[in-house]
Amino acid sequence: MFRSPQNLDEAVDEVGRWADSLPGDFAVEVTGFDDATVIQVTGALTSSGLVLRAGLLVTPGRAVEQSRCNR
Fold it and tell me: Which of 64, 53, 61 is nearest to 3 (CA)?
């Protein structure tokens, strides 16, 4: 599903398309910091009500790290 985005805007678009493909109501939030950008997806799956939170930390060198929010 994921391609190889070449810049931050493409990465945000890619995550947005992925979130739109999920069966439920999901929001994508982008927070910029001086040294990185965080792309977060939050929502719930329609069939089970399972809450999903996912985050990507994108640094200026385009390194991407996955993060998990446990609550």
Answer: 64
